[in-house]
From TrEMBL:
Reactions it catalyzes: adenosylcob(III)inamide + GTP = adenosylcob(III)inamide phosphate + GDP + H(+); adenosylcob(III)inamide phosphate + GTP + H(+) = adenosylcob(III)inamide-GDP + diphosphate; adenosylcob(III)inamide + ATP = adenosylcob(III)inamide phosphate + ADP + H(+)
Entry binding sites for GTP: 9-16, 34-36, 51-54, 62, 84
Keyword Cell inner membrane among UniProt keywords: no
EC nos: 2.7.1.156, 2.7.7.62
GTP-binding keyword on record: yes
Protein name, as recorded: Adenosylcobinamide kinase
Enzyme class: transferase
Biological or metabolic pathway of the protein: Cofactor biosynthesis; adenosylcobalamin biosynthesis; adenosylcobalamin from cob(II)yrinate a,c-diamide: step 6/7; Cofactor biosynthesis; adenosylcobalamin biosynthesis; adenosylcobalamin from cob(II)yrinate a,c-diamide: step 5/7
Organism: Geomonas silvestris
Matches recorded under InterPro entries: CobU/CobP, P-loop_NTPase
Alphabetic keyword roster: ATP-binding, Cobalamin biosynthesis, GTP-binding, Kinase, Nucleotide-binding, Transferase
CDD domains: CobU
One annotated GO biological process: cobalamin biosynthetic process
Length: 173
């Protein structure tokens, strides 16, 4: 059974950097499952910055939608896999899955249901998007609600959960 660690926090809270530190206690090669897509210049630069932090012991696998399937394919290939990040995955699913947010949440349930079958330790990054103001637009509220529900499902199934605030990790579970 895979050991699952969830790292959550707000924007620019240090969650990805902390998750990388957790994964770096494992020897290489390490897997990095990226859900983000370079849809614009700013996102492309962000992706390159993240890649630049990781050394040659990291192998990047890009998968914006079929995250559980990708993890099943690479299970056992690396000493650890870092999934960055759930909230980008959810955004991708909301706009591509015919069932929208309900289908995306079902995919999260399927994802957590596979934890017991994987052997590779897994570090998961997600964002806390519901700690600010209530969004004005219904689509934004639906996304906020989806992210909150998904984070709760993953946190419940994880072995350890950390929240990062201002670059400082706090162990919750």
């Amino acid at each position: 059974m895979s050991r699952v660690t969830l790292v959550t926090g707000g924007t620019r809270s240090g969650k990805s950097r902390f998750a990388e530190q957790l994964a770096e206690v494992y020897p290489g090669p390490r897997g990095y499952l990226a859900t983000g897509q370079a849809g614009d210049a700013e996102m492309a630069e962000r992706i390159e910055r993240h890649r630049g932090r990781r050394g040659s012991d990291w192998v990047t696998v890009e998968e914006p939608l079929a995250v559980a399937e990708a993890l099943s394919r690479i299970d056992g290939s690396y000493s650890v896999v870092l999934l960055d990040c759930v909230t980008l995955w959810l955004s991708n699913l909301m706009f591509s899955a015919p069932g929208g947010a309900p289908e995306a949440l079902e995919r999260v349930r399927e994802f957590t249901g596979r934890f017991a079958g994987w052997t590779t330790p897994l570090v998961i990054v997600t964002s806390e998007v519901g700690m600010g103001i209530v969004p004005e637009h219904p689509l934004s509220r639906a996304y906020r609600d989806l992210a909150g529900e998904a984070n709760q499902l993953i946190a419940a199934a994880a072995d350890e959960v950390y929240a990062t605030i201002s670059g400082l990790p706090l162990k919750l579970k």
